Amino acid sequence: SAVISQKPSRDICQRGTSLTIQCQVDSQVTMMFWYRQQPGQSLTLIATANQGSEATYESGFVIDKFPISRPNLTFSTLTVSNMSPEDSSIYLCSVAFGLFSYEQYFGPGTRLTVT
Amino acid sequence: EDKVVQSPLSLVVHEGDTVTLNCSYEVTNFRSLLWYKQEKKAPTFLFMLTSSGIEKKSGRLSSILDKKELSSILNITATQTGDSAIYLCAVEAGTASKLTFGTGTRLQVTL
């Protein structure tokens, strides 16, 4: 496994603004992912962060709303743009090390509240 | 669309009891099934299962996959209050390691 950190751990933001969440891993990883967990719900995959290229988004998520960067093998950012109260969630990054079958490990999460 | 269903949704037991949590799935191109424990924000990895019938064990926790029945169980013996958490089942299917999560089972262990 690895040590995964996320910043910020929580934030309260006003609607219409944007927030960038950072995910840092202490070792190189094969894959990095971003998930959302809305209140009382399970985790939903937003996108796979690809190193050096555009992220791969899941159905219902678009780059304009959730731009993602992954400049290297240990770091990624997720931006939540033009926020509304419906974006209030826990945002989690996860990482995987394998080539063919993956155990995914999660960062500590960012609790976002939009007012 | 891939689907993962967990049961029960919630469970209250007394310390020392044994519990069995269930996970069933309908996915295309199954690769693995993972169990996580979520206490606050971050899910903590418990087990990854790929082969049917082989039990994975860690202390008081164990899990087994039944590919024929498209299901898995997570057993916790001699439960403790520290086992209180949401237990999440996720299935990896298709390509690119996409995980589909179930809604979780909320376990509360009381004294």
SSE run of chain A: EEEEEEEEEEE
The helicity of chain A comes to: under 10%
**How many helices of chain B?**
0
Quaternary structure classification:
heterodimer
Structural class of chain A: mainly beta
Shape type of chain A: globular
Separation of the first and last Cα atoms of chain B:
41 Å
Percentage beta strand of chain B: over 45%
Largest sheet of chain A, in brief, is: 7 strands, mixed
Tell me the structural class of chain B.
mainly beta
Largest interface chains and counts: A-B, 24 and 24 residues
Return the average pLDDT of chain B rounded to an integer.
93
Low-confidence stretches of chain B: none
Q: Report the strand count of chain B.
A: 11
Given the structure, what is the number of helices of chain A?
0
Q: Helical percent range of chain B?
A: under 10%
